[in-house]
Amino acid sequence: MRIKDAWVLAAKHIVSRRRRYLFLFCALTLGFCVISVTGSLKDGMAESVYNSARDHYSGDIIISGFESETDSGNRIYGKTVPVIQQKIEESGIRPDRQALRTLQFKDSMIHYNGNAAPMRYLTGVDWDAEKEYFDSLNFTEGVPPSGFDDEAILVSAPVAAHMGIRSGDLVMLETETMYGQKNTAYFTVSGVIDDRSLFGYYKSFISRRALNGLISFDPDDCSTIGLYFKDRAGLERKRELLQDALTGAVPLRPLVYDREGFDREKDWEWDGVMFFLLTVSVYVSDVAQILQALNIIAYFLYVMTLLIIMVSAGVTYRLILHERMKEIGTMRAIGCYGSDIRRMMLFEAAILATASLVTGFCVTLFINSMVSELSFSWFPGFEIFLRNGRLLARYSPAATAINAAALYVTLFISVGAPSFRFSREPLPELLSGVY
Predict the structure, then answer these.
(1) How far apart are CA 289 and CA 257, in angstroms?
(2) How many CB atoms lie within 10 A of CB 15?
(3) Mean pLDDT across the chain, nearest whole number?
(4) Which helix (H) or strand (E) holds 279?
(5) DSSP code for 384
(6) Model's pTM, two decimal places?
(7) What are the pLDDT digits (tens) for 162-208?
(8) Helix (H, G, I), strand (E, B) or coil at 101
(9) What's the pLDDT band for 380 if we cut at 50, 70, 90?
(10) Given Cys at both, which of 135, 235, 247, 431 links 329, Cβ 3.0 to 4.6 Å?
(11) Looking at the predicted structure, is the pLDDT value of residue 435 above 60?
(12) Residue 273: phi, psi to the nearest 5?
């Protein structure tokens, strides 16, 4: 039997026995949908965590300087910045953009109209250099910064709502210098950022030059140099190349791979500024354990779904083949080989699986679109997995291909065994319909 004829017969058998195949079609569709929804939402949660941390810590690879002699902690002297940037160029890692930030993560307050609120994350940025980041944020008031001056400040929505701050209001910012002295300055609220993630609460932005002046840094100083890459493949290799390039140019600690190792390295004593090369995964290694638990749950559902599909397909095909015994016997009698029959059965399974995959993926898109309309911001501590308060799915071509391949393999195993056995039965028993 020619392959083309086998495909045609397989399609006709699917159509003529559509009621019998309907149960298996629904089982395959539902199974692929469960696998795809679970995997895409899990990947979406992981992506949201990474993107939130990436925006918060400023980059995929972060060069962070720690000064031992002051209370400020993070510091990179302005004269060292060109040296580091030169080594970045020599390393050949080619980041798509760089961001210099000054960080103040302690003892900062915003005062307005007799009220005060702590600022856990006070960040000094270069407005124009980070326009891409601010354009991606959701502003409830004001507009993304474009040409902001040193008197502008952006505050988070929870703080603005708590204190009654509106765009255009004048607020007083209180913080500490690197010598532990209090310092204050007035800023005009130029925008309110609706970032309800774990990193978005109690966050505010001012210009890097303004923050440097408040904490007694030199104008060109910063705390971190963040490197952004559109292609995140091979980040660890890029970090190793940059570590090699910076060795000898600035004081460096060894590479660390989790938060525990990072804290351990910071416990060492040194004079002056010591540099660390970090990735987002180092900062969120604790959260990664939660994602690992989600992976275990997802894999359990994955295996259980495939087992259900295998059992459903096996039972359904045994019933179908039992009903088609005389048909198979007739085909054998007119000269079809057992291999032709098995090939036709596998083609039927392939057609059925393909139709189920397409339908299942469409249902997956619908379910995920419905889920994305729901707000999970009421779930305490869950904000880190959300993007703008929504649970978003991420579709990986590789993961989708693996899911599809797993479905095909599972179905072919379920179909192949009974098909092989029935196609080799003695011809008289097949024609008699007794088995």
Answers:
(1) 14
(2) 10
(3) 83
(4) strand 273-279
(5) G
(6) 0.77
(7) 889 998 899 999 998 888 889 999 999 998 988 766 666 678 999 99
(8) strand
(9) low
(10) 431
(11) no
(12) -110, 130
